[in-house]
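HUMAN: Now follow C-alpha cell order:
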Amino acid sequence: MSTGRVLAADAGAVDLGARAADVLATATVALVEDGPELGLWEAGPGEDTDEEVDEVFLVLSGSGEVTFEDGSRVSLRPGVLVRLRAGDRTIWRVTERLRKLYVATDDQGAGGGGDRVLAGDATALALTREFPSGQWVIGGWPTARVEELGRLGSARVGLWETTTGVVADIEQDECLLVLSGSGTVRFEDDGEAVDLHPGLLLRLRDGERAEWQVGTDLRVLSVAWSRS
C-alpha cells in the first residue's frame, strides 16, 4: 500500500493532464493536500499577462522570461529559483514549453521586499550554514549545509546538501525535490525504503524517524512548514 511519501518519481515527467485553452496552454497539478499550496505548472510556448500571488518557483525545464511593471526582467531556465509577490503585474514570454515546481500562498502578510531571483542556479548555489557533526552521524564523515532562501506564510523554502555517509534524523513536515546525488532513505516506523535520485519529489511528515544513506553528495530543494 502506498504511504504517499513519493509524490513524484520524476517531477519533470508527471502527466499534468489536459491543458487549458488559453494563450499559454497552461496545466497545473496540486501535490500536497495537508500543507502549503505546492504543485507543478506547465505552459507555453506563447505570451500572456498575469497578476501574481505570493509564490516561489523553480524552473525544471524550458525557457523564457518574465517582465515586471518596473521593466525588470527575469530569464527563465532550468535551475533558476524565482520569488513573485502578490499584486506583481507580469508579462510571461515562454519560448520553450516551461515546467516549474511552485509553492504559493494567499497569506496577506507573506509579501515584502527582496530579490526576485533567489538562486540563478539552485544546483550550484554555495550554501553557507554548516551543521556540526554530532549524534546524528551513524557512518562516515558527512557534512551538511543549508540555506534558507525565502518564506511564504508558514512555509520555508531553501536548499540543503550533505556529503556521503549515513545519518539519522527526526523529520519535520517537508517536501524535498532531489536536485543531484543519490542514496536511500529508510523510515523506522514501517521500514519503507525510498531510493533518492534527481527529480524525485518526497513528502516527509513531522516526527518520522529516518536513516539517510547518502551514496553520492546529495542536494535538495526543501519546502518545510509548521502546522497551525
User: Anything to note?
Assistant: The domain at 6-119 is CATH 2.60.120.10 (Jelly Rolls).
